[in-house]
Design a protein that fits this description.
It is a single chain. This protein is mostly beta strands. Helices cover 10% and strands 32% of the residues. Strands 1, 3, 6, 7, 8, 11 and 12 form a seven-stranded antiparallel beta sheet that branches. Strands 2-5-4 form a three-stranded mixed beta sheet, with no helix packed on it. The longest helix is centred in the C-terminal third of the chain and has 8 residues, at 156-163. The protein is globular and about 40 Å long.
Length: 192
């Protein structure tokens, strides 16, 4: 069973124990590069709320975080809904021993609105409605893949993807996603 929920309202995620406390945390930024950015016309906040898993023996908590920074090959998305798999609480509690790093903003598949793209974007544009695919592949070896924000993969090379660059997923108001994981949706056709 899969449940679709609004990422910005963590209280509606059933089956997951969530602690409703806010607190600032530091975000790892090693390896990020400056680049030109195309922004949506909306004013972006400096911070946003995210569900964070700090440890497998503690519930997810709501934390205030800095807005993700754009890098080449990425897009900043305003998350509209996310997929929550029926066994998510087993993964986050450690009953299913997925070897993901913590702290972690979980989440993968979803629907979002593009708010910024890096200089290297050719067709993805701010304002587009996109389906967010949680499979992230190594750009230099597409056979090395992880499930972004959920499962780091079976090899050290795949796990490297989720250790730093693609650690935080879609259980947040905003996220940074690989551009190749942002699949434009035909909004007019879907919504009339």
């Amino acid at each position: 069973m899969v449940t679709s929920v609004c990422a910005w309202d963590p209280g509606v995620i059933r089956g997951l124990e969530i602690e409703r406390s806010l607190g600032p945390i530091s975000v790892h930024r090693a390896g990020w590069r400056a680049c030109s950015v195309t922004m949506a016309s909306e004013t972006l906040p400096k911070t946003h709320r995210a569900l964070v898993l700090t440890s497998r023996d503690k519930p997810l908590t709501v934390e205030s975080r800095d807005l993700p920074q754009i890098t080449s090959g990425s897009a900043i998305l305003r998350v509209l809904s996310v997929q929550v798999v029926s066994y998510a609480s087993e993964v986050f509690s450690g009953k299913r021993p997925y070897p993901f790093p913590t702290p972690l903003v979980p989440g993968g598949f979803g629907v979002a609105r593009v708010v910024a793209v890096g200089q290297d974007a050719t067709t993805l544009k701010p304002g587009q409605l996109v389906y967010v695919d949680c499979f992230v592949a190594g750009r230099d070896n597409p056979d090395e893949r992880c499930l972004w924000g959920f499962y780091p993969g079976d090899t050290p090379a795949a796990q490297k993807l989720m250790e730093h660059e693609w650690r935080d997923g879609t259980f947040a108001e905003y996220c940074r996603a690989p551009m190749e994981s942002c699949i434009p949706l035909e909004e007019q056709r879907l919504l009339g």
